[in-house]
Design a protein that fits this description.
alpha/beta, 2,3-Dihydroxybiphenyl 1,2-Dioxygenase, domain 1, four-stranded mixed β-sheet, 2 helices
Length: 130
């Protein structure tokens, strides 16, 4: 049996509406599906590329809570780019949108640029060197 592809990523956020707006501002308009449970609200975003990100707001989460990549769990979300030029294009788009980001990284194995969503989750645009 082969390893399956990732179908979707769902993140816990302090404000689902704010997060959904931020992701769509950066990644473009997405098809939205809303769900609610007893103590949570989720906005599921699906882009034409097939990328699906869910933003779940839990009733007990403090508005001041922030993501910490040094804790057990998720470190960052990596989004695939076709080549170095596409990574640089995302950097330029973030500049145009006024979205803070780190520097362009030229690592031995790939190129990357990372931003942080409203709750501090690192979103990395990455291309593996061939």
């Amino acid at each position: 049996m082969r390893a399956p592809a990732v179908h979707h990523v769902t993140i816990s956020v302090t404000d689902a509406e704010t997060s959904a707006e931020w992701y769509q501002r950066l990644l473009g308009p997405a098809e939205i599906t809303r769900r609610e449970g007893a103590d949570w609200t989720r906005i599921r975003m699906q882009w034409p590329s097939g990328l699906v990100i869910g933003a779940t707001q839990h009733e007990g989460t403090s508005a001041g809570d922030r993501f910490d990549h040094t804790r057990v769990g998720l470190d960052h979300l990596g989004l695939a780019c076709a080549d170095e030029a596409e990574v640089r294009a995302w950097l330029e788009l973030m500049d145009d949108l006024g979205i803070a980001h780190g520097p362009f990284e030229d690592a031995p194995y790939g190129w990357a640029v990372t931003a942080r969503d409203p709750d501090g989750l690192p979103i990395e645009f990455f291309c593996l060197k061939q």
